[in-house]
Automatic annotation (TrEMBL):
The keyword Metal-binding applies. Its main location: cytoplasm. PANTHER family: ARF-GAP WITH DUAL PH DOMAIN-CONTAINING PROTEIN 1 (PTHR46021:SF5), ARF-GAP WITH DUAL PH DOMAIN-CONTAINING PROTEIN 1-LIKE PROTEIN (PTHR46021). This is ArfGAP with dual PH domains 1. Keywords: Cytoplasm, GTPase activation, Metal-binding, Repeat, Zinc, Zinc-finger. It is found in: Cytoplasm. Residues 1-119 form the Arf-GAP domain. SUPFAM superfamilies: ArfGap/RecO-like zinc finger (SSF57863), PH domain-like (SSF50729). The keyword Cell division does not apply. InterPro entries: Arf-GAP_dual-PH_domain (IPR052589), ARFGAP/RecO (IPR037278), ArfGAP_dom (IPR001164), ArfGAP_dom_sf (IPR038508), PH-like_dom_sf (IPR011993), PH1_ADAP (IPR037849), PH2_ADAP (IPR037851), PH_domain (IPR001849). Pfam families: ArfGap (PF01412), PH (PF00169). GO terms for molecular function: anion binding; GTPase activator activity; zinc ion binding. Residues 122-223, 245-349 form the PH domain.
Length: 367
């Protein structure tokens, strides 16, 4: 079957451009798919029956369905009421997000019937998640409650406990899928601020739908919080603020403020303007956090280390100059050095918002 891209192919079918030419057609749904999306659809044969676009055995009925539905019409039908806060995955997102999007859209038809959106739209959600313990790294079942009315996500250590073990304010909450780091296909990292320091918890649910529903419930709560905090802001202004992925993570070596302490290998996370380092990637809180401002405010990133530097093992240095001090890092490979510098440059080249000056001031007053 031949198709004309201008007519039949909607690049936003599974939200975000398909990552290749649409070589596949779902005969049951009547849509064109790229290679990446076709792999997802192939694992859901009860929803989607695939055929190569170039397959010579197309029969008239199939051709009629595809030409009569097509991607634009399918989108209008299956995505008629996607909530503004609902996360639309990209081709580069993890498997659970992409698979649950296809299932939500076609299998459960959640975006055709608003009553099916209750698990993430109600403003309240409770249930059990496997949470990684701080001390031994074991995952234990914990009760979680997300309440927009209380403005918080809470979890409880004991079934009958009255007081939550942690109260995470919706205002500073973030959630990002981290299957590789957590070692579970549904692994979710939740961060929040406590006394202006970042805290991490790591959770998962065996059921992909449950985990993605939690993720979207958190996004809904953040959306409604921001609607109140920024009245008059458009949905498009608010949506990027709901959850964020880290700009970069990985190991680097670092030394202390005197630069003579010797270099130690640490796990680094660049979360917007916060550079955090951890002894272990799954630590509950960072050993240190560094604020990375903008070049207008005297923050600079350069490759290499000052000539007198000693005690590093990795050869690819990075120097970050802040108004307070110089930070020296070393990367294992040139590629890592390049990626880290690119991540730092992105924030250094971006002018600071008024709120970010307040965050910077908090960092300066830290002991
Ligand atoms: Zn695609």
């Amino acid at each position: 079957m031949r198709h004309n891209c201008k007519q039949g192919y909607d690049p936003l079918l599974d939200s975000g451009p398909h990552d290749s030419e649409p070589d596949w057609v779902s005969c049951t749904l009547g849509v064109f798919l790229c290679q990446g999306c076709s792999l997802l659809h192939r694992s859901l044969p009860h929803i989607s029956r695939l055929k190569a676009a170039r397959d010579p055995s197309w029969d008239t009925a199939d051709v009629e369905l595809v030409t009569s539905v097509g991607n634009v019409a399918a989108k209008a039908k299956y995505e008629q009421s996607v909530p503004a806060f609902y996360y639309r995955p990209k081709h580069t997102d993890c498997r659970v997000l992409r698979e649950q999007w296809v299932r939500a859209k076609y299998e459960r038809q959640e975006f055709m019937y608003i009553e099916k959106q209750e698990p993430y739209s109600a403003g309240y959600r409770e249930g059990y998640l496997w949470k990684r313990g701080r001390d031994n790294g074991q995952f234990l079942s914990r009760k979680f409650i997300l309440s927009e009315r209380e403005g918080a996500l809470k979890y409880y250590n004991k079934q009958d406990a009255k007081d939550p073990k942690a109260v995470m304010k919706i205002e500073t909450l973030n959630a990002t899928f981290q299957p590789a780091k957590i070692g579970n296909p549904c692994g979710l990292q939740i961060t929040y601020l406590k006394d202006n320091s970042t805290r991490n918890i790591f959770v998962y649910h065996e059921d992909g739908k449950e985990m993605v529903d939690w993720f979207n419930a958190i996004r809904a709560a953040r959306f409604h919080y921001h609607q109140v905090a920024f009245p008059g802001a458009s949905d498009n202004d608010l949506i990027p603020k709901l959850t964020r992925n880290f700009m970069k993570e990985g190991y680097m070596e670092k030394t202390g403020p005197r630069h003579t302490e010797g270099f130690k290998k640490r796990w680094f996370t660049m979360d917007d303007r916060r550079l955090m380092y951890f002894k272990d990637p799954l630590d509950a809180y960072a050993r240190g956090e560094v604020f990375i401002g903008s070049k207008e405010n005297s923050y600079t990133v350069m490759p290499g280390l000052p000539p007198s530097t000693q005690g590093y093992h990795w050869q690819h240095g990075i120097t970050i100059v802040t108004p307070d001090r110089k930070f020296l890092f070393a990367c294992e490979t040139e590629a890592e050095q390049r990626d880290w510098i690119a991540a730092f440059q992105r924030v250094v080249n971006r002018p600071m918002h008024p709120q970010e000056y307040a965050v910077e001031a908090h960092f300066k007053h830290k002991p």
